[in-house]
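Ligand: zinc ion. Inputs:
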Amino acid sequence: MIRIPKPIYIAMIEHARKESPLECCGILGGKEKTVEKAFELRNVEGSSIRYLMSPQEQLRVFEEMEKESMEMIAIYHSHPRTIPFPSETDVKLAFYPEVSSIIISLKEEKSPMVKAFRIGKEAIYLEELEVVL
Ligand SMILES: [Zn+2]
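Predicted complex:
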């Protein structure tokens, strides 16, 4: 289970809305499955159906997380028009099986859905997400 403080949860949805109709992407860092910080990254694909995190920004985020002794808990991205379930591309490009994938769906404009997954070689597991205060 991943715990996300409410302000970070809201910021993630705002990020998705800001980038829509393109996919947004970012990294959640923290300790012991509790998110402490969200890093917004640039989607260098500039696409509405896929994303690729800017490698330079990713490097900078990794350095910052290391400095603050945070782990990468999750990578998040948005699905501006589709359901919150990993796409074929998401599965193909899941490079970190130990890191959760969070998907923010804006399909229902008024009620965005946020889901967490573990994407393994053989299967996709739904992971529990708890919003904490
Ligand atoms: Zn996706």
